[in-house]
Design a protein that fits this description.
Layout: H1 4-19, H2 28-38, H3 46-68, E1 75-77, H4 78-91, H5 101-109, E2 112-114, H6 115-127, H7 132-140, H8 143-147, H9 156-166, E3 174-176, H10 183-194, H11 199-205, E4 206-210, H12 213-226, E5 234-237, E6 282-287, H13 299-313, H14 323-332, E7 335-346, H15 356-365, E8 367-374, E9 388-394, E10 403-409, H16 415-423, E11 428-430, E12 433-439, E13 462-464, E14 469-473, H17 480-483, E15 484-485, H18 487-493, E16 500-504, E17 514-515, H19 517-525, E18 531-533, H20 544-554, E19 580-583, E20 585-587, E21 592-595, E22 600-601, E23 605-610, H21 618-628, H22 631-640, E24 642-644, E25 648-650, H23 653-657, E26 660-662, H24 669-684, H25 688-716
Parallel strand pairs: 3-4, 3-6, 4-5, 6-7, 8-10, 16-22, 17-21
Antiparallel strand pairs: 1-2, 7-9, 8-9, 10-12, 11-12, 13-26, 14-23, 15-18, 16-18, 19-21, 19-23, 20-25, 24-25
Helix pairs in contact: 1-3, 1-6, 3-4, 3-5, 3-6, 3-12, 9-10, 9-16, 10-11, 21-24, 24-25
């Protein structure tokens, strides 16, 4: 039997091949509107638009077949399909219909869909347990095109977890402010039915908003395939933050601009009462908001909603706040006093400097119950490069509680174990993660909530890194493109090798945990810049170096702010190669790198110079590196550093001084040997999975060592 995905591809992809020829016929303004709606900086990719237009056409065919198959001719012309599906949407209470440039392309195509193909596909999709439509969209539309609008779908187990916690009664009114492909709406309907609601009541109890006309149809189609309906659906094609009708909505190119003037049809047997508005409070809100980062949001749009948030809700959001922060504030204001909200957010929302106002709002207006965090190596949200967490919150009418649960999930245990752990009072390690209870009084807005109490061994076994090493920033050249040369540039200018030093310029050029001479040679073969012009005094006239300096002055490089403060603008600050480099501005995979090649490093790295006792021999140094690259230390990085969007951690040298690490000088020789061996294995890991397995082994070795020390100390005390 052919699977649903194969049938969807067999119908959609040939349509895309035909529609791509029509993309150039779209007007420049139509294309610009579509690009602005999705936050695309580059021109619209013709293949992307063709795939979207083809899927849009198939979705309209599925909707028409599910709701009014008898009215369809065997061969459905696009013009008929567009008007018919719009009339059906209007009968469901969806006004205006989500039309777009995709419909315009289809209308120009003269294509025809056949009912037998639509019927076969609909039956296959109804049998499928996964989100076939959402998965196909993610496969056809590259991540770069989905990243700006934040189009990443919620996995079904996560949707079940959120709906089971948030929905407590069969009469609950449920809202999803960004319903995407509809997974959370389906989970909510299933939960309401499990609690005793009828299918029809459940459908009318859920409400949703989606700004993308195509994604709106994806979510709607997924609902109708599983719950064919003739009742009003409380789904809005709208901007959740700036609803249609608000003057500021135009700042984000509202989708109403795409509404088509098509023939309207009155269909017998459909409901005719007006849809319920969203002016009421909701008993449950579940949401996976778009993760659109602040620099992707139009300034006028961002500042307009920030003004609304401050005037209406008393929240002054940082200009660095991503779109999820705006969704969180808006959604929470629609929560009933005794309602529940399950919200997916980046894990950094409770750590980043720009989130203080959000944390203050949570403390002031809501009842925070639990934060469920996922290890960054645990692939919960496929394709998302930001570690996520689920925030569980109750409305202000819920009973107060002086503690909050923080769950750190290492592997997925199922929905019930997590729900049980949220309600339990104990804390400590679980076979699938770790559970902590945070005192509400410790959750001050200027503190990092999800790292409070991370280190359990704070009785002398942990020491600040400054007591074990000297930390300085890498070399700041003031003009990297000039001062760092490739092999070809060295040869072309004839620079004397004695005036050059090997150097690392980018963190991605050192992808592992050790940087070797072979790695440095690889940079040469790849044509990378790898030689630092290392002049310490005046150059002799008429030398290659003097000619190169005159060329730099012709580019006005000597007028740059940093270099002009030097006695000679072209001299370099003096630095010895550091045994250890740290990735100064890290996203997810921060590393302490063993500098086996003896290279210098630019200021995208921190230089770590161990004290003589810590670096007295190779075994001790490797044991130290194992400690630095352990999960314990990585968690501690978030305590001392500044967290930005996208899991970016920035740590200045004096902040790194305060990093708490296990003291390697207290290790026995056998413990040093074990950790040194594990560090060698870490350097040789060939996959992220192997890397994490070794880091776990390092963590276990550290934990065993700490437990033995603790036991010995108890014995000494009697």
């Amino acid at each position: 039997m052919t699977g649903a995905r194969e049938l969807l591809e067999a119908l959609t992809l040939p349509l895309a091949e035909k529609l791509v020829r029509l993309v150039p016929t779209a007007s420049g303004e139509e294309m610009r509107k579509w690009a602005r709606l999705h936050g695309w900086d580059a021109p619209v990719d013709e293949q992307v638009l063709a795939h979207q237009a083809a899927l849009n056409l198939v979705l309209r065919g599925l909707i028409s077949y599910q709701l009014d198959a008898d009215a369809l001719p065997v061969a459905i012309p696009v013009q008929f399909l567009t008007s018919h599906s719009n009339a059906l949407l209007r009968a469901l209470g969806i006004e205006p219909q989500p039309s777009s440039i995709l419909d315009l392309l289809a209308l120009r195509s003269g294509l025809v869909l056949r009912v037998p193909q639509i019927a076969t596909l609909a039956e296959a999709l109804q049998r499928a347990s996964e989100d076939v439509i959402g998965d196909a969209y993610a496969a056809w539309i590259p991540q770069r095109a989905r990243r700006a609008p934040g189009q990443f779908w919620t996995p079904w187990p996560i949707a079940q977890l959120m709906s089971q916690w948030a929905i407590q009664s069969p009469t609950d009114r449920v809202l999803d402010p960004a319903f995407g492909s509809g997974v959370l709406l389906l989970a909510a309907i299933n939960r309401l039915i499990q609690r005793g609601a009828s299918s029809e009541t459940a459908l009318q109890s859920v409400a949703g908003v989606e700004i993308s006309p195509l994604v709106f149809l994806m979510g709607l189609t997924n609902l109708l395939l599983r719950y064919p309906s003739s009742v009003w659906l409380r789904l809005r094609w709208d901007d959740f933050l700036l609803p249609r009708g608000e003057p500021a909505a135009i700042l984000r190119e509202p989708t109403a601009a795409y509404t088509l003037d098509v023939r309207q049809m009155a269909l017998p047997g459909m409901a005719t009462t007006a849809p319920t508005t969203f002016s009421e409070k909701f008993d449950a809100i579940i949401c996976n908001p778009p993760y659109t980062r602040h620099h992707r949001l139009p300034e006028a749009y961002k500042s307009t909603w920030a003004t609304v948030a401050e005037q209406e809700f008393g929240v002054k959001l940082s200009r660095f706040s991503s779109l999820f922060a705006h969704f969180f504030i808006q959604a929470s204001r629609m929560l009933a006093p005794d309602g529940r909200m399950a919200f997916i957010t980046p894990a950094t929302v409770f750590e980043a400097f720009y989130s203080n106002q959000i944390k203050a709002f949570v403390r002031r207006e809501l009842r925070l119950r639990a934060i469920v965090s996922f290890d960054e190596t645990f692939p919960v949200f496929e394709g998302v490069d930001t570690a996520a967490c689920i925030t569980l919150i109750e409305g202000p009418g819920a009973p107060p509680r002086d503690w909050v649960v923080h769950l750190q999930v290492h592997r997925w245990p199922g929905v019930e174990p997590i729900l049980d752990a949220v309600e339990q009072e104990g804390e400590g390690d679980i076979d699938w993660g770790h559970r902590r209870r945070l005192r509400l009084s410790t959750l001050e807005p200027d503190r990092k909530w999800t790292v409070i109490g991370h280190n359990n061994h704070d009785d002398g076994r942990l020491v600040p890194l400054a007591s074990l090493a000297r930390i300085v920033r890498g070399i700041a050249t003031g003009a990297n493109a000039f001062f760092v040369l490739s092999d070809d540039e060295v040869k072309r200018w004839g620079v004397d090798p004695t005036n050059l030093r090997p150097v690392l310029t980018k963190t991605r050029e050192a992808p592992g945990y050790a940087f070797t001479e072979d790695d440095f040679d690889r940079l040469g073969r790849e044509g990378k810049k790898r030689w630092l012009l290392y002049l310490t005094g005046p150059v002799q006239p008429d030398t290659p170096e003097a000619l190169y300096i005159r060329w730099g002055e012709a580019q006005h490089l000597h007028e740059r702010s940093l270099v002009r403060t030097r006695p000679l603008w072209y001299t370099m600050e003096q630095r010895d190669p550091a045994p250890i480099y740290f990735t100064y501005l890290s996203r997810k995979r921060s590393r302490f790198i063993y500098n086996l090649a003896g290279v210098l490093a630019l200021n995208v790295f921190l230089c770590i110079y161990p004290i003589p006792a810590t670096g007295r021999d190779e075994q001790m140094l490797k044991a130290f590196l194992a400690v630095l690259n352990s999960r314990m230390t990585k968690a501690a990085l978030r305590q001392v550093g500044r967290t930005y969007g996208g899991d970016t951690i920035k740590i200045e040298p004096r902040e790194m001084d305060r990093l708490p690490v296990l003291n390697p000088l207290r290790l026995t020789l056998s413990e040093q040997e074990r950790l040194a061996t594990l560090f060698d294995e870490l350097c040789q890991a060939e996959s992220r999975e192997a890397e994490e397995a070794i880091r776990q082994a390092i963590q276990e070795t550290i934990t065993v060592t700490a437990n033995i020390e603790e036991s010995d100390e108890r014995k000494r005390r009697g």
